[in-house]
């Protein structure tokens, strides 16, 4: 019996060492009526944030400050996604609408 268990345990241990890709997390935020919804959010590192345009006014997603810089196109519909690979606090805004801000904390 011991001869059988040792090889099985060895195979199980080797299988545990094989990296299995984790499912990537995605969080969704909206842009509507000159506001980001939600206004603040906290996500884990390597989360993809997807912003969805829900109103008729044109908006963009622009990083004002944070560990990564990015900017979406100005649009009235559709979506924009970005994988946040660096920890820190991201301050975002729409360059068209003063006061239209969002804060994302990446842990």
Automatic annotation (TrEMBL):
Residues 63-82 are annotated as: Disordered. It comes from the Bacteria. Residues 34-106 form the Blue (type 1) copper domain. Residues 1-24 form the signal peptide. It holds the Pfam family Copper-bind. Keywords: Copper, Metal-binding, Signal. GO terms for molecular function: copper ion binding; electron transfer activity. SUPFAM superfamilies: Cupredoxins. PANTHER family: BLL1555 PROTEIN. This is Blue (type 1) copper domain-containing protein.
């Amino acid at each position: 019996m011991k001869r059988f268990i040792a090889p099985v345990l060895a195979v199980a241990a080797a299988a545990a060492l094989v990296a299995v890709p984790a499912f990537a997390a995605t969080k969704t935020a909206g842009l509507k009526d000159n506001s980001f919804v939600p206004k603040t959010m906290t996500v884990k590192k390597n989360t993809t944030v997807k912003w969805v345009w829900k109103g008729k006014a044109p908006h963009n997603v622009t990083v004002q400050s944070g560990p990564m810089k990015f900017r979406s196109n100005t649009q009235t519909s559709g979506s924009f996604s970005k994988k946040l690979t660096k920890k820190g606090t991201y301050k975002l805004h729409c360059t068209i609408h003063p006061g239209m801000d969002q804060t994302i904390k990446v842990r």
